[in-house]
Amino acid sequence: MDHMPENWGRPRSDVYGSYQHAIHSAGPQSHTQVPSITGTSVIAMKFNNGVILAADNLGSYGSLARFTDQERLIKVGKETVVGFSGDASDMQYLESMLERLIIEDNYEQDGHNFRAPHIYEYLSRVMYNRRSKVDPLWNAILVAGKKDDGSPFLGYVDLLGITYSSPCIATGYGAYLAIPLLRKLVSEDEDAKNVTEEQARAAIDESMKVLFYRDARSLDKYTVATVTLDGNVKFDKDVRCQNMNWRFAEGIRGYGTQKQ
Amino acid sequence: MVGFSFDNYQRNQFLTAKGYPVPTATATGTTIVGCRFDGGVVIAADTRATEGDIVADKNCEKLHRMSPSIWCAGAGTAADCEFVTQLISSTLELHSMSTGRAPRVVTCLTLLKQHLFKYQGHIGAYLIVAGTDPTGPKLFSIHAHGSTDVGYYLSLGSGSMAAMATLESKWKKSMTKQEAMELCAEAIEAGIWNDLGSGSNVDMCVMEVDKPAVLYRNYRTPNERSTKEKSYVFARGTTAYMSERVRPTVKPLAYDIFEETVSSTGGGESMEIDG
Q: Cys bridge to B204: A131, A138, B150, B219, which one at CB 3.0-4.6 A?
């Protein structure tokens, strides 16, 4: 007889094998991934006549700068631009989903086309749904275009299904480095009315330069997309950071006491 | 035995697992910057001290004096910054008396980094050290583990990225004192508005070669509390009372006053001070 009360009512180890402790530490079924090829920040801001977005052309493989020709801003439909950061394969999957969405919408030929708020709503649902299955699409996405009332639209949705709207948004490191600069022009929604396209473009270029200085997974080659309220979408590709200031390094030697 | 005692580590792990984690030290959740200009260096800091998600001090002083011409801005654990700067300031003063020379920024840097390295990062002091000495203006930064960096413009703390974005945007090699002060104030403001760990006011210290250092406490105050819409002072008589007794609080002192003057007489032995 086994005199140990802890073993009463339990299957015998010599017959059924020892107790597998992994059972009580097992969680629900989940497929959370680790992103592989990634894109860094996407930044965007509203101006008086629309929205400007920018994203560099780098696809990083961890710390390796693997692909320098990755286009992370796409035109969806006629008047919307979507910018992706995070996992590249999930980005490509979403691109094909959006393409299919537009094609199927065109079957109707009813004169109505998807605008930015509709694309945004669709993407938010997809992202939150995947999050709820604990199998996220590992991205942070910006959707830019115009609302049905003709005013500029800019929204953010990410792998957790978090959504928000703001006159200036940035994903990744852009949130820390670019937002302080962009907010100097547009801290409230009304400020966008006083910002010209040239001013907004200058702020975006400045922010991309600062990101190249201080984000270790960035590139100095990027794409700028401008969506204007008249329904035009302009892509400025292969833009390079201009007037970079690296002269500070001239006089510096060592890390404190070194003289030569 | 020198160094920290880690005897309670196992006990603390156990308590954390049971739901009683170690309380967070008051951190400065800060924005601090330093910037060189022609003929000197300027440093600036915000004035918010946080205890987790709470603002513990709305107007704390993050600029510490290492010597009359060497000042230090501190981010990280507030107490660690305060005490490490006081300790090294004291050591620096004694060293300066021993050498008979004005203290140098590289001396301060070396004393700080050797102290912090010894404690392997457990003393959470992240400092921007700046000043002028006989070799000219200097600007350095130190991390808690003991590494140091040199630069013409630097930022540290949770708001360092917001400040650095401003600095990278507007810094140029040759700047006047006014331009550098303006740039530093703007960089700190970027931290104040965009970083939740930073807020309130901007403190600044300007160290110019061959001039005394000038501390500008609350150089900018962009977060002043607005005046209340009405006075909430209760009128006399709001609280009813049943009886009243008035006692004088100040009693004249019943002491006699003598006056005595002490001066050296010249005669008699003077005290031996140099043995």
A: B219
Amino acid at A254: G
Q: What is the pLDDT of residues A97-149, one digit of tens each?
A: 999 999 999 998 998 899 999 999 999 999 999 999 999 999 999 999 999 99
Of A177, A247, A253, the CB nearest to B161: A177
User: Is B22 an 8 Å CB contact of chain A?
Assistant: no
Residue by residue, what is the 3-state secondary structure of B240-260? CCCCCCCCCCCCCCCCCCCCC
* ipTM associated with this complex: 0.85
Q: The tokens of B168 are what?
A: 């990278």
Give, as one character, the DSSP assignment of residue B25.
P
CB A255 within 8 A of CB B148: yes
The answer to whether residues A82 and A73 touch, using CB atoms and an 8 Å cutoff, is yes
Instruction: Give residue B100's identity as a one-letter amino acid code.
Output: G
Which residue among A173, A179, A213 places its CB closest to the CB of B168?
Answer: A213
* Segment A199-258, tens digit of pLDDT: 999 999 999 999 999 999 999 999 999 999 998 999 999 999 999 999 889 989 999 999
CA A15/CA B195 separation, integer angstroms: 62
Q: Which helix (H) or strand (E) holds B173?
A: none
